[in-house]
Amino acid sequence: MAATPLHRHAKVVRMVVSTYQAASGAGAAAMEELLQQTHEVLDGKQPTCKIFKQQYAFNLFSHNAAVLSNGYNEEEMKLVKETRKIWNDMDVKVTATCIRVPVMRAHAESVNLQFEKPLDEDTARRILEGAAGVTVIDDRESNHFPTPLDVSNKDDVAVGRIRQDLSQDGNQGLDIFVCGDQIRKGAALNAIQIAEKLL
Protein backbone atom coordinates (compact mmCIF):
# COMPACT_ATOMS: atom_id res chain seq x y z
CA MET A 1 0.00 0.00 0.00
CA ALA A 2 2.77 2.48 0.84
CA ALA A 3 5.50 1.37 -1.56
CA THR A 4 3.29 1.01 -4.64
CA PRO A 5 2.48 4.74 -5.13
CA LEU A 6 6.21 5.48 -4.83
CA HIS A 7 6.99 2.67 -7.27
CA ARG A 8 4.55 4.15 -9.80
CA HIS A 9 6.31 7.51 -9.56
CA ALA A 10 10.00 6.56 -9.54
CA LYS A 11 10.15 2.76 -10.18
CA VAL A 12 11.57 0.71 -7.33
CA VAL A 13 14.54 -1.35 -8.48
CA ARG A 14 15.37 -2.83 -5.06
CA MET A 15 13.42 -3.19 -1.82
CA VAL A 16 14.74 -4.40 1.53
CA VAL A 17 11.96 -5.18 4.02
CA SER A 18 12.05 -6.22 7.65
CA THR A 19 8.60 -7.19 8.92
CA TYR A 20 7.43 -7.23 12.51
CA GLN A 21 4.42 -9.51 12.53
CA ALA A 22 1.76 -9.62 15.22
CA ALA A 23 0.14 -12.65 16.82
CA SER A 24 -3.04 -12.03 14.82
CA GLY A 25 -1.19 -13.11 11.68
CA ALA A 26 -1.06 -16.62 13.11
CA GLY A 27 -4.73 -16.67 14.12
CA ALA A 28 -6.95 -16.42 17.18
CA ALA A 29 -5.21 -19.28 19.00
CA ALA A 30 -1.87 -17.47 18.74
CA MET A 31 -3.42 -14.28 20.10
CA GLU A 32 -4.86 -16.24 23.01
CA GLU A 33 -1.51 -17.90 23.68
CA LEU A 34 0.28 -14.53 23.74
CA LEU A 35 -2.23 -13.24 26.28
CA GLN A 36 -1.93 -16.43 28.36
CA GLN A 37 1.88 -16.34 28.25
CA THR A 38 1.92 -12.68 29.28
CA HIS A 39 -0.10 -13.49 32.41
CA GLU A 40 2.05 -16.56 33.13
CA VAL A 41 5.36 -14.72 32.78
CA LEU A 42 4.16 -11.80 34.91
CA ASP A 43 3.05 -14.32 37.55
CA GLY A 44 6.51 -15.95 37.50
CA LYS A 45 5.22 -19.15 35.87
CA GLN A 46 6.63 -21.14 32.96
CA PRO A 47 4.83 -19.99 29.79
CA THR A 48 2.59 -22.38 27.86
CA CYS A 49 4.13 -22.86 24.39
CA LYS A 50 1.84 -24.68 21.96
CA ILE A 51 1.51 -22.50 18.86
CA PHE A 52 5.06 -21.21 18.54
CA LYS A 53 6.97 -23.82 20.57
CA GLN A 54 8.85 -21.05 22.40
CA GLN A 55 8.11 -18.12 24.67
CA TYR A 56 6.35 -15.37 22.73
CA ALA A 57 5.52 -12.95 25.55
CA PHE A 58 8.31 -10.38 26.06
CA ASN A 59 10.28 -11.97 23.22
CA LEU A 60 10.64 -11.85 19.45
CA PHE A 61 11.95 -14.40 17.00
CA SER A 62 12.28 -15.28 13.34
CA HIS A 63 8.90 -15.90 11.72
CA ASN A 64 7.66 -19.39 12.45
CA ALA A 65 7.23 -20.36 8.77
CA ALA A 66 9.35 -23.24 7.49
CA VAL A 67 12.91 -22.31 6.49
CA LEU A 68 13.78 -23.22 2.91
CA SER A 69 17.07 -24.48 1.50
CA ASN A 70 18.04 -20.92 0.42
CA GLY A 71 17.88 -19.76 4.05
CA TYR A 72 14.72 -17.68 3.59
CA ASN A 73 11.52 -18.81 5.27
CA GLU A 74 8.26 -19.31 3.39
CA GLU A 75 6.84 -15.98 4.61
CA GLU A 76 9.87 -14.09 3.29
CA MET A 77 9.67 -15.78 -0.09
CA LYS A 78 5.93 -15.07 -0.23
CA LEU A 79 6.69 -11.37 0.25
CA VAL A 80 9.26 -11.48 -2.58
CA LYS A 81 6.90 -13.28 -4.98
CA GLU A 82 3.80 -11.20 -4.12
CA THR A 83 5.67 -7.92 -4.60
CA ARG A 84 6.83 -8.96 -8.05
CA LYS A 85 3.34 -10.18 -8.96
CA ILE A 86 1.53 -7.05 -7.70
CA TRP A 87 3.96 -4.76 -9.52
CA ASN A 88 4.06 -7.03 -12.57
CA ASP A 89 7.84 -6.72 -12.44
CA MET A 90 9.83 -9.94 -12.21
CA ASP A 91 13.09 -7.95 -12.29
CA VAL A 92 12.59 -5.92 -9.10
CA LYS A 93 15.06 -7.05 -6.46
CA VAL A 94 13.36 -7.84 -3.14
CA THR A 95 14.79 -9.25 0.06
CA ALA A 96 12.95 -9.72 3.33
CA THR A 97 13.42 -10.72 6.94
CA CYS A 98 10.20 -11.59 8.77
CA ILE A 99 10.11 -11.44 12.55
CA ARG A 100 7.30 -12.40 14.93
CA VAL A 101 6.82 -9.76 17.66
CA PRO A 102 4.69 -9.91 20.82
CA VAL A 103 2.06 -7.50 19.53
CA MET A 104 -1.56 -8.62 19.56
CA ARG A 105 -2.71 -7.12 16.27
CA ALA A 106 -1.31 -5.27 13.20
CA HIS A 107 1.99 -5.87 11.41
CA ALA A 108 4.79 -3.34 10.90
CA GLU A 109 7.51 -3.09 8.26
CA SER A 110 10.76 -1.20 7.94
CA VAL A 111 11.18 -0.65 4.20
CA ASN A 112 14.24 0.57 2.31
CA LEU A 113 13.57 1.49 -1.30
CA GLN A 114 16.03 2.11 -4.12
CA PHE A 115 14.61 3.90 -7.17
CA GLU A 116 15.43 4.07 -10.85
CA LYS A 117 14.56 7.80 -10.90
CA PRO A 118 15.36 10.31 -8.12
CA LEU A 119 12.65 10.81 -5.49
CA ASP A 120 13.13 13.27 -2.65
CA GLU A 121 11.38 12.82 0.68
CA ASP A 122 9.07 15.85 0.30
CA THR A 123 7.74 14.55 -3.01
CA ALA A 124 7.39 11.07 -1.49
CA ARG A 125 5.44 12.50 1.43
CA ARG A 126 3.06 14.33 -0.94
CA ILE A 127 2.56 11.15 -2.99
CA LEU A 128 1.78 9.16 0.15
CA GLU A 129 -0.56 11.84 1.52
CA GLY A 130 -2.56 11.57 -1.72
CA ALA A 131 -2.55 7.76 -1.90
CA ALA A 132 -5.82 5.93 -1.33
CA GLY A 133 -5.79 3.70 1.75
CA VAL A 134 -2.69 5.37 3.24
CA THR A 135 -2.46 7.66 6.26
CA VAL A 136 0.77 9.55 6.88
CA ILE A 137 1.90 9.73 10.53
CA ASP A 138 5.26 11.44 10.31
CA ASP A 139 5.72 13.99 13.08
CA ARG A 140 9.46 14.33 13.70
CA GLU A 141 9.09 17.15 16.21
CA SER A 142 7.03 15.07 18.65
CA ASN A 143 8.64 11.76 17.57
CA HIS A 144 5.25 10.35 16.59
CA PHE A 145 5.23 7.71 13.88
CA PRO A 146 3.01 4.70 13.03
CA THR A 147 2.39 2.03 15.63
CA PRO A 148 0.27 -1.11 15.56
CA LEU A 149 -2.12 0.58 18.00
CA ASP A 150 -2.64 3.45 15.55
CA VAL A 151 -3.90 1.09 12.84
CA SER A 152 -5.66 -1.69 14.76
CA ASN A 153 -9.26 -2.07 13.55
CA LYS A 154 -8.66 0.43 10.71
CA ASP A 155 -8.64 -0.11 6.96
CA ASP A 156 -5.85 2.34 6.09
CA VAL A 157 -2.19 1.55 6.51
CA ALA A 158 -0.05 4.18 8.21
CA VAL A 159 3.35 5.29 6.95
CA GLY A 160 6.00 7.44 8.58
CA ARG A 161 9.74 7.80 9.22
CA ILE A 162 9.87 9.03 5.61
CA ARG A 163 13.49 9.97 4.99
CA GLN A 164 16.25 9.88 2.41
CA ASP A 165 18.50 6.85 2.56
CA LEU A 166 21.86 8.44 3.36
CA SER A 167 23.71 5.43 1.94
CA GLN A 168 22.47 6.18 -1.60
CA ASP A 169 23.47 9.12 -3.76
CA GLY A 170 21.20 11.46 -5.71
CA ASN A 171 17.85 10.94 -3.98
CA GLN A 172 17.78 7.36 -5.28
CA GLY A 173 16.64 5.85 -1.98
CA LEU A 174 14.11 6.25 0.81
CA ASP A 175 13.39 4.62 4.15
CA ILE A 176 9.81 4.33 5.39
CA PHE A 177 8.06 2.61 8.30
CA VAL A 178 4.63 1.11 7.68
CA CYS A 179 1.96 -0.34 10.00
CA GLY A 180 -1.24 -2.05 8.93
CA ASP A 181 -3.94 -4.21 10.43
CA GLN A 182 -3.63 -7.28 8.23
CA ILE A 183 -6.99 -8.54 9.49
CA ARG A 184 -8.75 -5.41 8.20
CA LYS A 185 -6.48 -4.64 5.23
CA GLY A 186 -6.00 -8.10 3.85
CA ALA A 187 -7.48 -10.44 1.34
CA ALA A 188 -11.12 -9.90 2.35
CA LEU A 189 -11.08 -6.09 2.19
CA ASN A 190 -8.95 -6.16 -0.95
CA ALA A 191 -11.55 -8.39 -2.65
CA ILE A 192 -14.37 -6.03 -1.63
CA GLN A 193 -12.50 -2.94 -2.83
CA ILE A 194 -11.65 -4.60 -6.16
CA ALA A 195 -15.30 -5.61 -6.61
CA GLU A 196 -16.44 -2.04 -5.84
CA LYS A 197 -14.12 -0.68 -8.55
CA LEU A 198 -15.50 -3.18 -11.06
CA LEU A 199 -19.16 -2.38 -10.35
UniProtKB/TrEMBL annotation:
<dbReference type="GO" id="GO:0008652">
    <property type="term" value="P:amino acid biosynthetic process"/>
</dbReference>
<dbReference type="GO" id="GO:0046983">
    <property type="term" value="F:protein dimerization activity"/>
</dbReference>
<dbReference type="Pfam" id="PF02774">
    <property type="entry name" value="Semialdhyde_dhC"/>
</dbReference>
<dbReference type="GO" id="GO:0016620">
    <property type="term" value="F:oxidoreductase activity, acting on the aldehyde or oxo group of donors, NAD or NADP as acceptor"/>
</dbReference>
<dbReference type="InterPro" id="IPR012280">
    <property type="entry name" value="Semialdhyde_DH_dimer_dom"/>
</dbReference>
<protein>
    <submittedName>
        <fullName>Aspartate-semialdehyde dehydrogenase</fullName>
    </submittedName>
</protein>
<feature type="domain" description="Semialdehyde dehydrogenase dimerisation">
    <location>
        <begin position="5"/>
        <end position="185"/>
    </location>
</feature>
